[in-house]
């Protein structure tokens, strides 16, 4: 039996009399003004990063849209055009991002090529980092599993556009069904024995275990904490509503619909002093935090201590990405209210930062040194992965920016 989800329109009628006064209604807009920075007329964007001199970069997930074939990382070179970055060659693994010689097909295992970029960030030294999941979707929408060599972290020197470091994740850290998603950096020499700083990464896998991955940027070692505890997983039965639409997911070809909140720990943000890490699952309205020292600890009881240190900061709306400014304010999407919210750790409150009918699925945030917060609107819930299984996205996708309050700017942990 086929399930039909019916949207019912309600007609409101009135008796013929004159209303003595206006009826209150939702204004739909408020807070900070949004500026359109870039229009994506070609591929489907997820991440965004902005350098100190204004260069802008985006990633294009091959897991979330199998049409993202031409490139998975690009520089935005005008208001409407992009070019593969740092080259077209590195975006085009030999034979493609999927290895069809295995059964079932798997992600290509080339360490020197981008397979399926997801996260992107500019660190405090103004270097670009690309987080590669090692995964890509088939034309039928099946997200293949990764193989060693695919999941990796790549550092690029923006002064000469060359790769200066590649860190491969072992299969005990980035599992075959992991979906390494977003990343934040702390380059203070005091946080690791190597003195080169750390990166914190979310694993938001829809099929496997969620958690937080930590990387020593000096040694290249990586490890996991908070592995699949409830606070990093999507909540069971989680159902979002966006632009007046009930959002159910379609996990794969021939599968029944499911609750749409099936991404685990996704958005990630560091406090301005680097001492606290915040995260949220897409399938949750709750913001969580943990002292970063608990994540860097690798002692025998470190996981027990880490789990005991997790704190719920309360609800902040449904969000994909998170970001922090120099005032310590944390930016988060609020899909269901067409808004971007701000969480203030100093007093534990949430406020609406910007509200606009053009806001829907707000993906990655990036606060830049110019004092603006940038974010992509990509209509993810309208892809074929969600009911009714047709592509209902309307191009162009949009990169917006808004001025940070209180002269906030990029956090500088170095």
Write up this protein.
With 414 residues, the protein is mostly beta strands. It has two helices and 31 strands. The strands form nine sheets. Strands 1-28-27-26-25 form a five-stranded antiparallel sheet, with no helix packed on it. β27 and β28 (349-355) form a beta hairpin. The mean pLDDT is 95.
Quick gist of this model?
By secondary structure, the protein is an all-beta fold. The protein is built from two helices and 31 strands. The protein has helices at 292-296, 302-308, and strands at 30-31, 35-40, 48-50, 56-59, 73-76, 82-84, 98-99, 106-107, 117-122, 128-132, 152-157, 162-168, 180-186, 198-203, 211-216, 222-225, 241-242, 245-246, 248-249, 258-259, 265-270, 276-281, 286-291, 311-315, 322-324, 330-334, 339-344, 349-355, 362-367, 372-377, 397-403.
Give the topology.
Elements: E1 30-31, E2 35-40, E3 48-50, E4 56-59, E5 73-76, E6 82-84, E7 98-99, E8 106-107, E9 117-122, E10 128-132, E11 152-157, E12 162-168, E13 180-186, E14 198-203, E15 211-216, E16 222-225, E17 241-242, E18 245-246, E19 248-249, E20 258-259, E21 265-270, E22 276-281, E23 286-291, H1 292-296, H2 302-308, E24 311-315, E25 322-324, E26 330-334, E27 339-344, E28 349-355, E29 362-367, E30 372-377, E31 397-403
Antiparallel strand pairs: 1-28, 2-31, 3-4, 4-5, 5-6, 7-8, 9-10, 10-11, 11-12, 13-14, 14-15, 15-16, 17-18, 19-20, 21-22, 22-23, 23-24, 25-26, 26-27, 27-28, 29-30, 30-31
């Amino acid at each position: 039996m086929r399930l039909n989800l019916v949207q019912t329109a309600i007609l409101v009628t009135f008796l013929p009399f004159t209303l003595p006064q206006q009826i209150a209604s939702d204004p739909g807009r408020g807070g900070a003004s949004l500026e359109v920075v870039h229009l994506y007329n070609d591929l489907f964007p997820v991440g965004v990063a902005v350098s100190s001199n204004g260069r802008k970069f985006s990633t294009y997930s091959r897991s979330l849209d199998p049409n993202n074939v031409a490139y998975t990382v690009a520089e935005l070179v005008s208001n409407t055009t992009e070019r593969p970055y740092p080259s077209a060659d590195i975006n085009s693994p030999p034979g493609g991002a999927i290895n069809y010689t295995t059964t079932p097909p798997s992600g290509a295992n080339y360490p020197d090529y981008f397979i399926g970029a997801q996260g992107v960030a500019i660190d405090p030294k103004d270097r670009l980092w690309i987080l590669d999941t090692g995964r890509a979707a088939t034309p039928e929408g099946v997200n293949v599993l990764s193989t060693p060599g695919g999941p990796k972290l790549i550092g690029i020197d923006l002064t000469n556009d060359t790769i200066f470091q590649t860190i491969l994740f072992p299969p005990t850290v980035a599992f075959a069904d992991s979906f390494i998603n977003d990343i934040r950096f702390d380059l203070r020499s005091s946080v690791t024995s190597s003195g080169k700083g750390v990166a914190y990464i979310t694993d938001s896998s829809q099929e496997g275990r969620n958690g937080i991955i930590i990387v020593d940027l000096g040694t290249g070692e990586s490890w996991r904490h908070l592995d699949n505890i409830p606070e990093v997983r999507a909540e069971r039965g989680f159902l979002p509503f966006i632009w007046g639409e009930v959002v159910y997911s379609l996990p794969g070809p021939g599968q029944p619909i499911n609750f749409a909140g099936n991404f685990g720990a996704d958005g990630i943000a560091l406090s301005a002093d680097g001492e606290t890490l915040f995260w949220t699952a897409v399938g949750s309205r709750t913001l969580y935090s943990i002292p970063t020292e608990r994540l860097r600890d690798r002692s025998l009881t470190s996981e027990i201590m880490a789990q005991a240190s997790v704190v719920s900061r309360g609800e902040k709306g449904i969000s994909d990405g998170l970001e922090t400014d120099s005032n310590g304010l944390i930016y988060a999407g609020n899909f269901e209210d067409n808004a971007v919210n701000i969480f203030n750790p100093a007093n534990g409150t949430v406020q609406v930062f910007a509200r606009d009918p053009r806001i829907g699925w707000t993906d990655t945030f990036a606060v830049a040194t110019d004092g603006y917060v940038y974010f992509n609107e990509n209509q993810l819930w309208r892809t074929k992965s969600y009911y009714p299984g047709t592509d209902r996205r309307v191009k162009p996708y949009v990169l917006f920016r808004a001025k940070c309050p209180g002269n906030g700017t990029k956090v500088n942990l170095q």
